[in-house]
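User: I've been trying to design a sequence by hand for this structure and keep getting stuck. Would you show me what you'd pick, starting by listing the structure so we're on the same page?

Assistant: Good idea, let's start from the same input. This is the structure you sent:
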């Protein structure tokens, strides 16, 4: 093992592995340089915990001559036999390194070693990656070298892991920040915040189709059901909409109790307003079908649900609004206010999908004119349209 080359790799990693743009590229370059320095690596893994509502952690797996394989594990994986009987559980829970030599009978307690032996692996070591806040993550290193790793090679791996941990901590911290922003404020807002748009009053104008929906009878539902049940219902109900919204190019900006505000940006220079509004309408139809199919068992009864969604198109002011050091990245403007008023009209008319004259005019066909209605805060009455294939619900 070339000690001077190992130190160069450590220094390169401490300096941010600048020649590698992505974590995957860093892993490829790091492993290839370690092999050139005399470490006979075969399969290398890095396993990091993360903060995400859907999965517990992320993994990066490298093998010679192959692209780095990136995977995720959900929270249920922690209770699986695969994890419970793996070296990773010991590393994550106790922060200890785990050695498993292919010829050691004691290593058979780890099923993964049998799989690696079938690949020709002779030695395996799992090493903790200790973050500065005390969090324990993990790495695994294998070789096909006859007799396994030498003591000098193991020492090199142990010397490398602190630098690897620092690199992973920095990259993972940024990844977590991005994921949390995407989760709580949406992709578009998250990108702007990460880009430095954090000053109060920093706003911009966006032309967009607007989606504002509401669950019918939510107050009565909340009054007669336990709070935990209501939360579960809301999550299922929002699932019925969010998948369709995101699939058709929209972004959820805010949940307001049982209400949902989403926008579908329109590029006025491209002139794609008709295309965008058609996608919005398709998302509304899909959401209507999903909510209609949502059946929630409570005791001997089955709860069914209805919702309403108002569609509008217009300019909105989008950015940081708030007081003191508590800001919200949201949107305001007359177009948002009109969408909110239209949603209330949808409820009064027992309609699921309604649209403003502006939206229906762009996304023509299939609309029924429901008449003109006075709108609080607006000087002129607004014409409202409903889907022609939809009979008013009672």
């Amino acid at each position: 093992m070339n000690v001077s080359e190992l130190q160069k790799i450590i220094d390169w990693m401490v300096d941010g592995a600048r020649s590698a743009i992505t974590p995957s590229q860093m892993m490829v370059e790091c492993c290839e340089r370690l092999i050139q320095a005399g470490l006979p690596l075969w399969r290398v893994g890095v396993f990091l915990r993360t903060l995400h509502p859907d999965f517990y952690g992320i993994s990066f797996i490298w093998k010679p001559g192959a692209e780095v394989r990136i995977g995720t594990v959900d929270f249920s994986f922690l209770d699986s036999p695969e994890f419970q009987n793996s070296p990773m559980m010991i590393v994550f829970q106790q922060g200890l390194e785990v050695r498993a030599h292919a010829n050691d009978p004691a290593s058979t307690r780890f099923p993964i070693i049998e799989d690696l032996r079938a690949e020709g692996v002779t030695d395996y070591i799992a090493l903790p990656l200790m973050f500065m806040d005390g969090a324990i993550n993990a790495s695994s290193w294998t070789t096909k070298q006859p007799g396994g790793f030498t003591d000098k090679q193991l020492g090199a791996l142990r010397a490398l892991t602190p630098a690897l941990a620092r690199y992973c901590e920095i990259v993972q911290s940024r990844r977590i920040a991005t994921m949390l922003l995407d989760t709580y404020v949406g992709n578009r807002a998250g990108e702007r915040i990460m880009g430095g748009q954090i000053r109060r009053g920093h706003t911009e104008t966006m032309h967009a189709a607007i989606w504002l929906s509401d669950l019918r009878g939510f107050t009565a539902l909340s009054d007669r059901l336990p709070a935990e049940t209501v939360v579960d219902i809301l999550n299922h109900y929002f699932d019925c909409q969010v998948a369709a919204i995101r699939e058709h190019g929209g972004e959820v900006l805010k949940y307001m109790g049982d209400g949902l505000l989403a926008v579908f940006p329109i590029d006025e220079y491209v002139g794609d307003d008709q295309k965008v509004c058609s996608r919005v309408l398709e998302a509304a139809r899909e959401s209507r079908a999903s909510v209609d199919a949502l059946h929630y068992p409570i005791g001997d009864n089955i709860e069914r649900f209805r919702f309403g969604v108002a569609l509008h198109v217009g300019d909105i002011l989008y950015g940081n609004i708030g007081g003191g050091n508590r800001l919200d990245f949201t949107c305001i403007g007359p177009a948002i206010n009109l969408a909110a008023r239209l949603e209330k009209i949808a409820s009064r008319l027992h309609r699921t999908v309604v649209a403003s004259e502006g939206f229906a005019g762009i996304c023509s066909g299939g609309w029924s004119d429901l008449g003109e209605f006075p709108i609080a805060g607006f000087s002129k009455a607004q014409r409202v349209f409903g889907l022609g294939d939809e009979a008013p619900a009672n």
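That's my pick for every position. To get oriented when you compare it with your attempt: The chain has a mean pLDDT of 89. Residues 8 and 139 are 20 Å apart (CA to CA).
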